[in-house]
Amino acid sequence: MGELILALVPVALGVVLSPLAIMALVAVLLSRNARMNGITYLVGWFLGLGGLMALCLWLFPLLAVHELGEPPLWVPIVRVLLGLFLIGSAVWVYRKGRAHIAQMAAASSPREVVAASPQLPGWLHSVESFRPGRTLLLGLGLFVLNPVDASCAILAALDISLSDVDRSSGLWVAVVFVVIGTLPIALPVLYVVVRGADAQPLLDRVRTWIAGNTHVLNAALLLVIGALQLEKGIAALL
Questions:
Q1: In b/e form, how buried is each residue of 66-82, taking b as 16+ CB within 10 angstroms?
Q2: Which of 87, 150, 155, 193 has the largest CB neighbor count within 10 A?
Q3: Average pLDDT, the chain
Q4: Domain-by-domain residue ranges, the chain?
């Protein structure tokens, strides 16, 4: 079980340092109804991560990924494809991230956050008027529809399904993975809920640091995760 947890650390960090989710969270926490929208965004993110993990943990046993101790041929092929995708994503995140650091650090409203982050959906310009229901869907969609975050959840579920731990232990590992993947959203939201308007100065400093460093950290993590998956996939095919 310990080896499984260690193997999932880089994959979990790939979710934790998701720049797209953090940029959207900044916009939500700058909206008029920051407390309630922050909570519903957190719930949506949690449902996206937890739901996708649960779906994969249910689906992979049906596909016999651990049958007779030897996973089917499609498993290493999926690892190779996801590894190549994540390595390509690392290059894209690093190159694109630097182009918007200054704008993101200076943003003071949801509209400016979106302008500094063109990869965000255009309808985020109206996040100031979002009601809790739409903000929940935003959190859910930004996880499920983000190929990088979704790939990390799929890889985590695949590693858990292929491990030698029993079903109960595997479920506990999955729960820990979901909790860790939710922390980068939960902590700022809880801080805003508790502190209200007094949270703004610290959020500004955290946002500035994130804007200047997240793209580098995330690119490095995606590169490591992609390389590990590529190595596992190629080794299984040979």
A1: beeeebeeebbebbbeb
A2: 155
A3: 79
A4: 2-237
Identify the sign of the CA torsion 146, 232, 235, 75: negative
Look at 9-13, 41-45, 71-75, 222-226 and tell me which has the smallest mean pLDDT. 71-75
Q: In sequence order, which residues have a C-beta less than 8 Å from that of residue 237 and are 6 or more positions away?
A: 76, 77, 80
Whether residue 111 is predicted with pLDDT greater than 90 in this model: the reply is no
Cβ–Cβ under 8 Å, residues 160 and 61: no
Is a pLDDT exceeding 60 seen at residue 117? no
- Cα–Cα distance for residue pair 65/111, rounded to 1 Å: 45
Contact 157, 58 (CB under 8 A): no
pTM over the 0.85 mark: no
- Contact (CB, 8 A) for 219 and 18: no
